[in-house]
Design a protein that fits this description.
The complex is a heterodimer of chains A (317) and B (597). With 317 residues, chain A is mostly helical. Chain A is 79% helix and 0% strand. In chain B, 28% of the residues lie in helices and 18% in strands. Chain B contains 18 helices and 23 strands. Chain B has a six-stranded mixed beta sheet. A four-stranded mixed beta sheet of chain B has the order 1-10-9-8, with helices on one face. A four-stranded antiparallel beta sheet of chain B has the order 4-5-7-6, covered by helices on one side. Classes of the chains: A mainly alpha (317), B alpha+beta (597). Chains A and B meet through helix 2, helix 3, helix 5, helix 7 and helix 8 of A and helix 1, helix 9 and helix 15 of B.
Chain lengths: 317, 597
């Protein structure tokens, strides 16, 4: 099948998925999500005032009409205004998403790269002391709460109780040096908390790949360990590796950075989403949930295309 | 490939992550860094319902009145007003003159972008705007059914071309307010963020986005705001008013150590820039303070033991005083748990006998509640437990009042249950509502343990948890929660503001969430609401307080003690009560800002 046909077919198949995901998430938000009415009313409201506010918030409109409006907003990216701050939601996203990406990208990449290297090493030395050490350390890393890691790193690196080299909070990033200054401690926290999970996952993938016939054949041909691990094992493991990487991205951007952003005072999308949840700001929540769903759908498409690149058998199928 | 693309991508992202200032900027400026434990949400005065929003709004906009910076108890002071108002003999007409030459900041909302003079008409517009349904005001309740013609103006479609009889601009600088009945708290309502004066042009230009585009005449202007921080610059056009310690209520005996004398004769604001960090997480706030990223800290309860050497009296560890200044004050409000009297299982019942039994049950629960333990576990033992609704920060507080309602007496509680035929089988299920959080859950568990001590079956005391405060608020506004634990922050220093919590007409969805309905109480409330502060008024408040206690309407209450630490380089007396955000205009810094250079 031609690549363009394949992409077109995948795009078309994404439409019902998109409708389904947005419909279910909207349904959940309308019936189980926050209600801003009473917070906006002030003290001692009358029932007439309650009705008026519900009308102004659009809560009294039929469900399908609200869903159609929501879908239109997603398609046109005209997401309306935040009910809490009055700020245009597209502006909130434009302001916060780049911050979140810049915040988590180094930790995400380093965490995965180190995870792959450690996973390869553990798989290669399977059952030996290095494998046991890496797996033991991974379990230890996984066992410590993200919150504890953040607070411990803050105390050790950002306060006079430790070395006091980095800021405990803030994000006044203007150039590369200020970026390194503000991103280092959050990055260390992200690496610390994700490395264990990544390493265990990648080790399992590599161990499975190492047991395949073509690896035995390469060994028989006398391939070096480096060539074997990077050319034969890693390359042939790219499908699960890509799947994990790609599906982590929306979660990393939206929810993964929440604690980091809160504890380091970084104005990213995670913190804004959390504020929207606690304050009942439905327009912001709907935008974030809807766009995350859209992101997942497009990622699935991208993953399918990448599969074709890394594994020609997918294209043939 | 990835390695080649990555630096370019990061540079692109950095382009979108520009901070609020460059390092060279902040080195040249006096920057005071404040912290708050919550976010303000909207900066529109009509939505300044939280203490966080109020804190910022009163610095970006002007109000007619404020409280004297250093005077305790709190005293009103003119802000935009030239002085205290002329009040007619019957207390129904207030005439207020405002200062001349006060200008809104320059903004694209005005023709040519130049801020115009603020006049009496702007005040009239501001109050009217609260009664325009489009505004979705959270502050209209302050003036509802108070000002002649205002409610009718709303009823007739909120047409701004129509005049309101009780809101008149006599000339550009004179406001005349006509009241339907005496409202002695009126001036207090003109100190809060809700009354901050907005320009009509800004409302029309920005619409709802005005929440992020404040166009005021306050001492500061907004430079930037996001979910983590607000940055405010001093307003170069702010009126020149000389700071006088005496006028602000300076007390050298208790305030000399603050070094405020250097402010004498100068014109605020004294710093160039304010950074206000919103840090909800206790540990993060503490770490930011100890690393000198912020100047000010409201000490989290979890850190009280690291800060205090003594609880009674409250004393700070001496080594901390080498670097920091310290103050403590009771909050201007209290925490209490009210019974939903609309719930027949525990509240009013059509059968008089059952009604009596329900009241006895509520009284038994109150007698079983251990305030001392609540204070120890959740407020480090330094909160102030008091009986009823008159908190210790109000002038009407009676320190010699009988404390029987806040003293645990298990024998009396059990006797009450026995006397009214309550036993393990017929006791109703108690549903204790709270918004989901670890602390709230712990409070529920403690409450349950108190009730177990009087023989209440464990399975009959159930948590009713809500995902957010908004959900909890909605549920108890709809009378769906049996026991409601909440806190009340007073809007002004007058006990009327807490008494209205139990005034019949304010029943849910109003602030009387217990749905208490006592005609005698309501009549006393109406009588006292029209009185100026006086001994007679105090007597009435105390009588009403006693009624609420005797009817066993609420388990009340405790005022929390707030501890503040601030860097010695900051010259100030912080406040989180009625002075609130106003103190920021009087903050000065001795030395270059830590962390800024």
């Amino acid at each position: 099948m031609k690549a363009s046909h394949y992409i077109g077919r995948k795009l078309l198949s994404g439409i019902p998925l998109l409708l389904g995901v947005t419909f279910i998430s909207f349904l959940l938000m309308v019936y189980f999500g926050p209600d801003k009415t009473f917070e906006l009313l002030g003290k001692n409201p009358s029932s007439e005032q309650i009705s008026k506010v519900r009308e102004q918030l659009g809560y009294d409109r039929p469900f399908l009409s609200r869903y159609a409006e929501y879908f239109r907003q997603l398609v046109t990216l005209d997401l309306g205004l935040s009910e809490s701050s009055g700020e245009r939601i597209s502006r909130i996203l434009a302001r916060t998403v780049p911050v979140s990406i810049a915040l988590v990208l180094p930790g995400f990449m380093l965490g995965n790269m180190l995870g792959i290297l450690l996973g390869l090493s553990a798989a290669w030395y399977r059952g030996r002391w290095l494998d046991k050490f890496i797996m033991g350390a991974s379990v230890l890393g996984m066992s410590i709460s993200f919150l504890v890691i953040i607070i411990a790193l803050q105390v050790l690196l950002c306060t006079p109780y430790g070395v006091n080299l980095f800021p405990a909070r803030g994000w006044e990033v203007n150039d590369a040096s200020s970026y390194v200054y503000y991103v280092t401690v959050p990055t260390l926290a992200i690496i610390f908390v994700t490395l264990g999970y990544n390493t265990r996952f990648y080790r399992a993938v590599m161990v499975e790949e190492l047991g395949r016939d073509h690896i035995q054949t390469a060994l028989a041909y006398g391939a070096s360990s480096t060539e074997l691990l990077f050319r034969h094992v890693l390359k042939n493991s790219l499908v699960p590796v890509l799947t994990r990487l790609m599906f982590s991205i929306p979660l990393v951007i939206v929810s993964g950075s929440l604690l980091i952003e809160s504890y380091f005072g970084i104005p990213g999308i995670g913190k804004s989403t959390f504020e929207a949840i606690t304050s009942g700001d439905q327009p912001v929540l709907k935008a974030v949930v809807g766009l995350t769903a859209v992101l997942f759908v497009f990622e699935q498409l991208l993953i399918d295309i990448l599969y074709r690149l890394v594994d020609p058998r997918v294209a043939e199928a | 490939m990835i390695l080649r693309v990555l630096p370019a991508l990061l540079l692109l992202l950095l382009g979108g992550c520009g901070g609020s200032e460059t390092p060279s900027d902040s080195q040249a400026l006096k920057v005071y860094r404040h912290s708050m434990d919550g976010t303000p949400g909207s900066l529109d005065p009509a939505h300044a319902s939280s203490i966080y929003a109020n804190f910022l709004v009163v610095n970006l906009y002007d109000t007619l009145y404020r409280y004297r910076y250093l005077a305790r108890p709190y005293e009103l002071a003119p802000n935009l007003a030239q002085g205290l108002p002329e009040i007619s003999e019957d207390g129904l007409v207030y005439t207020i003159r405002i200062k001349q030459g006060v200008k809104f900041i320059d903004d694209p909302a005005f023709p040519d972008g130049k801020g115009r003079e603020l006049t009496a008409h702007d005040f009239i517009y501001t109050i009217k705007r609260h009664f325009d349904p489009v505004t979705l005001s959270q502050g209209a309740w302050l003036w509802r059914d108070r000002i002649v013609g205002l409610d009718e103006w709303k009823g007739n479609g909120s047409d701004y071309t129509q005049e309101v009889a009780g809101l008149q601009a006599i000339d550009e600088q004179t406001i005349r307010i006509g009241l339907k009945k005496p409202f002695p708290q009126l001036l207090h309502t003109f100190t809060g963020g809700f009354s901050a004066i907005v320009a009509r042009e800004a409302v029309q230009h920005y619409g709802r986005e005005m929440a992020n585009h404040p166009v005021g005449s306050g001492p500061y202007t907004l430079r930037s705001v996001d979910s983590a921080q607000a940055v405010l610059d001093s307003n170069p056009g702010f009126r020149q008013e000389i700071f006088r310690l005496e006028e602000e209520g300076y007390n050298p005996d208790s305030q000399k150590h603050l070094g405020l004398e250097v402010l004498e004769g100068r014109s605020p604001p004294f710093v160039d820039r304010l950074h206000i960090d919103f840090i909800a997480e206790d540990a993060a706030r503490w770490n930011a303070f100890t690393s000198k990223d912020i100047h000010f800290l409201k000490v989290p309860v979890s850190q009280f033991d690291r800060v205090l050497s003594s609880r009674n009296p409250v004393k700070v560890i001496p080594s901390l005083l080498e670097s920091y200044r310290f103050s403590s004050s009771l909050e201007s409000g209290f925490v209490y748990t009210s019974f939903n009297l609309d719930d027949e299982r525990i509240g009013y019942h059509p059968d008089p006998l059952q009604n009596e039994r329900n009241q006895a049950l509520r009284c038994a629960i109150i007698k079983a509640f251990d305030w001392q333990s609540r204070n120890e576990v959740f407020y480090y033992g330094i909160g102030r437990v008091f009986p009823g609704l008159i908190p210790p920060t109000t002038p009407e507080f009676d320190s010699s009042a009988d404390r029987f309602s806040v003293e645990r007496d298990l024998d009396q509680a059990r006797a009450l249950l026995r006397l009214h035929d309550w036993n393990r089988e017929n006791l109703p299920v108690l549903e204790y509502g709270f918004p989901a959080s670890v602390t709230e859950r712990q409070m529920f568990e403690q409450f349950r343990s108190f009730m177990l001590d009087i023989g209440y079956p464990r399975e009959k005391i159930r948590p009713l948890s809500f995902a957010t405060f908004g959900d909890f608020f909605r549920a108890y506004s709809r009378r769906e929660v049996m026991l409601i634990t909440s806190s009340w922050t007073m809007d002004y220093p007058d006990t009327e503001n807490t008494m209205q919590l139990f005034f019949g007409p304010n029943m849910s969805p109003g602030s009387n969430s217990s749905n208490y309905n006592n005609e005698q109480f309501d009549q006393l409330y109406r009588d006292s609401a029209a009185m100026q502060p006086s001994e007679q008024c105090t007597e009435i408040y105390r009588k009403m307080n006693q009624m609420v206690i005797e009817d066993c309407v609420a388990i009340s209450g405790v005022s929390r003690n707030l501890l503040f630490l601030w860097d010695k380089s900051a010259i100030m007396l912080p406040d989180r009560s009625f002075v609130g955000g106003y103190f920021l205009r009087f903050v000065d810094l001795k030395d270059p800002v830590p962390g800024d250079g």
